């Protein structure tokens, strides 16, 4: 992810029809951008309570993440899953090429730390430490705010969806954004210019809570990927920590890590579609469907069908297991 100085996005004939606004937050992006807010010293009063809460539970090892940042380079390889254990594994075992490319750009601006050099070299100990630190930071800086982040982003999506004309969507993104067909541009600090041709890929507009006050472009270097324009979502008030229910160790041991997280996601967000469940867990739709089927066959969730859409909701047994208790027997049942 790069914060350019002047960005011009050049739209082709088909690109306007391929603009879409993300329906849900990208928690991996939120985590990366939240660390950048700490690195850059961003002093937004809406994040003061978040900073205070983070400071009160600060883990000194979190500062290792700062070694992966510069003012203009934000890592895209940090991965967030609903379960921190899955975050640790996914980040530690992620593909090495994007990681090395990013740290090469960081090394071009300043000397890499020993930790960053180890990560770039693929050292297993350094990669495991990266995964552990990322997962720990997630539990402190992202998970307590997950519901509020999701509400902010889904509200932003609903607001944008009511605007039917692509030109109007692009003009209303941000005060600094200029849209004059076929070029979307916005000024940033510095004196250089960067041109990005979409070439039929379209553009994903991703509202972000922790994003800087100016838009950021991501995932644009790979011609096979759709570029993502991250822009600051409207935040009505300060972020406040909220404790989410999480599966117990016993339930995780019984169902498995991902399946326990799936049950918890259905209980928190349900009724939800298979696609929404996949997005919440950070897994493929096919995998989410498989886990949802097992949960339904076990009586922990139930499926409802409306037309071609299947939604999942927790059963009393599923909610009871998440709460760590057995459901009460129906009236009249023999306790024996």
Overall average residue pLDDT: 85
Helix content: 40-55%
Strand content: 5-15%
Largest sheet: 4 strands, mixed
**Adjacency order of strands in the biggest sheet:** 3-4-1-5
The DSSP helix count reads 13
The termini sit apart by 62 Å
Stretches where pLDDT is under 50 for at least 5 consecutive residues are none
Radius of gyration: 22 Å
Shape label: globular
Structural class by helix and strand composition: alpha/beta
Protein architecture, described:
The mean pLDDT is 85. The longest helix is centred in the middle third of the chain and has 18 residues, at 124-141. 42% of the residues lie in helices and 14% in strands. The protein folds into three domains: 6-24 and 148-232, no CATH class; 27-144, no CATH class; 249-323, Winged helix-like DNA-binding domain superfamily/Winged helix DNA-binding domain (Arc Repressor Mutant, subunit A), CATH 1.10.10.10. The chain has 336 residues and is α/β, with parallel strands linked by helices.
How is this fold's topology laid out?
Elements: E1 6-10, E2 19-21, H1 27-40, H2 48-56, H3 84-92, H4 96-107, H5 114-120, H6 124-141, H7 146-161, H8 166-171, E3 178-180, E4 183-187, E5 194-197, E6 203-208, E7 216-218, E8 228-232, H9 249-255, H10 257-269, E9 272-273, H11 274-281, H12 285-297, E10 301-306, E11 309-314, H13 316-323
Parallel strand pairs: 1-5, 2-6, 6-8
Antiparallel strand pairs: 1-4, 3-4, 7-8, 9-11, 10-11
């Amino acid at each position: 992810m790069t914060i350019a100085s002047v960005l011009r996005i050049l739209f082709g004939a088909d690109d306007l029809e391929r603009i879409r606004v993300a329906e849900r937050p990208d928690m991996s992006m939120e985590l990366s951008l939240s660390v950048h807010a700490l690195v850059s010293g961003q002093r937004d009063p809406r994040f003061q309570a978040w900073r205070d809460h983070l400071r009160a539970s600060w883990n000194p090892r979190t500062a290792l993440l700062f070694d992966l940042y510069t003012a203009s380079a934000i890592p895209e390889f940090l991965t967030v899953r609903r379960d921190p254990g899955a975050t640790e594994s996914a980040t530690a075992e992620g593909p090495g090429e994007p990681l090395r490319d990013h740290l090469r750009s960081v090394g071009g601006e300043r000397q890499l730390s020993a930790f960053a050099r180890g990560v770039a070299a693929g050292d297993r100990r350094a990669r495991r430490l990266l995964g552990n630190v990322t997962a720990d930071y997630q539990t402190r800086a992202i998970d307590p705010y997950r519901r509020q982040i999701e509400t902010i982003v889904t509200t932003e999506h609903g607001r944008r969806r009511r605007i039917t004309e692509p030109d109007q969507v692009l003009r209303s993104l941000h005060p600094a954004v200029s849209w004059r067909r076929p070029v979307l541009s916005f000024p940033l600090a510095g004196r250089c210019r960067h041109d990005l041709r979409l070439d039929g890929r379209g553009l994903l507009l991703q509202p972000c809570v922790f994003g800087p006050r100016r838009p950021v472009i991501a995932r644009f270097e790979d011609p096979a990927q759709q570029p993502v324009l991250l822009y600051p979502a409207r935040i009505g008030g300060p972020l406040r920590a909220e404790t989410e229910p999480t599966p117990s160790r016993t339930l995780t041991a019984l169902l498995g890590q991902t399946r326990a997280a799936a049950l918890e996601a259905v209980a928190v967000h349900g009724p939800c579609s298979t696609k929404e469940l996949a997005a919440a867990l950070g897994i493929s739709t096919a995998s989410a469907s498989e886990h949802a089927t097992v949960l339904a066959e076990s009586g922990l969730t139930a499926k409802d069908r409306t037309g071609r859409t299947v939604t999942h909701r927790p059963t009393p047994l599923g909610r009871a297991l998440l709460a760590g208790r057995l459901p009460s027997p129906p009236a009249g049942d023999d306790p024996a």
